[in-house]
Every structure is written in C-alpha cells, then in structure tokens.
Design brief:
Elements lengths: L2 H23 L4 H4 L10 H16 L26 H20 L9 E4 L2 E4 H27 L15
Antiparallel strand pairs: 1-2
Length: 166
C-alpha cells in the first residue's frame, strides 16, 4: 500500500462513519437526540458534541500543534445546554468533520513519516490518524445503537437488514 492509498482510505472510512451516523440520527425524533438511557449515559447530542470538539482540537493545525488545544473544554462537551437544537448540533458536527476531513485531505505522503503530539505524547502521523479513526468509530457505534433503540420498529437498517443476507 502506498502512502497516498492509506490517506485516501482513511478519508473514505471517515466519510463512511460520518454518513452512517447521519443516517442514524435522521431516524430519531428531536427529543431522542437529548435522551439518556441512565444518569451515567450520554445522549446522541452529547456524543456528537464531544466528537465535534475532539475533531476541532485534534485536527486544527494537526502537524504543527499539540492535538489537545489549550482552548478546548472537554468537560463542557459532556454537558447539556437548553439552547441546543438539532440544527445547532448538526452545525457543530459539520464544523468538526470539516476540520478532520480537510486536515487529512491536505496530508502529503511524506507527512506520514512525521511525528505529532496529543496531550504532550508523541505519535507518528499514522498512529495519530488511526487513534482518531478508532475513537470516532466507537462513538458512531454508540450513536447508531442509541438511534436504533429510539427508532424502534421504525428503524431502517443502515446495511443489510436481518434475514436478507442471501
């Protein structure tokens, strides 16, 4: 695999994750975006807010500054605000994804040999990208699980529906 093939595949996989989450969220009523299964759980909206905040922090000036920006308030990403709506959640989500996809799109094959830091810890660019890809995949899985739970019988499968593999 060439370096450019790796970059292109990372972009393809991230776009798939974004689309999967968006297709799941589209099946959920507004009140379910903010619902929690229990006091220790996060709502879909909180997960999306956290992902957007993480993306802005990690991918802004990706090659030149620490991935944990001093202006990031990670704890606030897990707090609800009464002013938050589906529209504001989706706008924040788009902003975060824009940062991530633009940063990865701008990588050149030689950049993969560089080292970046996240919270003061050195990572190869490949390790940093993979770290974020797996982080986002885990959260998209949470979003899909919650959306499917809330949609119930109205859920439209995001892949091959049950008993239709043949």
């Amino acid at each position: 695999m060439t370096e450019q093939t790796y970059i292109d595949d990372c972009l393809r996989q991230l776009r798939k994750l974004k689309t999967q989450a968006e297709r799941a969220v589209a099946q959920v009523r507004d009140e379910h975006l903010f619902a929690v299964l229990d006091p220790e759980s996060n709502s879909i909206a909180i997960i999306m807010k956290h992902m957007a905040g993480n993306m802005r922090s990690r991918w802004t000036d990706f090659l030149t500054t620490d991935g944990e920006k001093p202006n990031r308030n990670r704890d606030a990403e897990f707090e609800s605000a009464s002013s938050v709506t589906r529209k504001t959640i989706l706008a924040d989500w788009e902003n975060g994804w824009s940062c991530a996809l633009n940063a990865i799109s701008s990588l050149k094959p030689d950049d993969l040999q560089k080292t970046v830091t996240i919270r003061g810890e050195a990572h190869s660019v490949i390790a940093a990208v993979n770290r974020q890809l797996t982080h986002y995949a885990a959260h998209v899985g949470q979003i899909v699980f919650l959306a499917k739970h809330y949609a119930g019988a109205d859920w439209k499968s995001l892949s091959i529906p049950r008993k239709q593999s043949r």
